[in-house]
Amino acid sequence: MTPELALQKAVRARLIGTAAVTQLIPAAAILDRNERPAPSPSIVIGEGQSLDENDSLSRNLTRVYMDLHVWKKEPSTQGVKAIAGAIRAAVHKANLPAETGFHFAGCYVQSARFLRDPDGETSHAVVTINAKVQEL
Q: pTM of the entire structure?
């Protein structure tokens, strides 16, 4: 497994295990797939980036950025903002549990952007998670 996949598994597990999130988004709609239009409401695990953290001799640290795309059919951005807030609270509530071979440090929501889809019916949020992942 890679640091990116380990973080993805841990974040998805945290989201589907958090009642405040699943009250807004069914657990089955928190997914990693590319589909347009996206199910409404949904959280789609999206793009990411990883950078080696070369501040240790062991070279076992990776900074991972992961985008979560929130979709909801609504005339405003109120619903996607509420979902982004639930994601933020879920990620911040405690350290993510370790995945086999990986530990997560300093995991937090770095940013959230709120957009209106050109279809005129859908709101979209992009929530970026930032984590330092240590390979054990």
A: 0.92
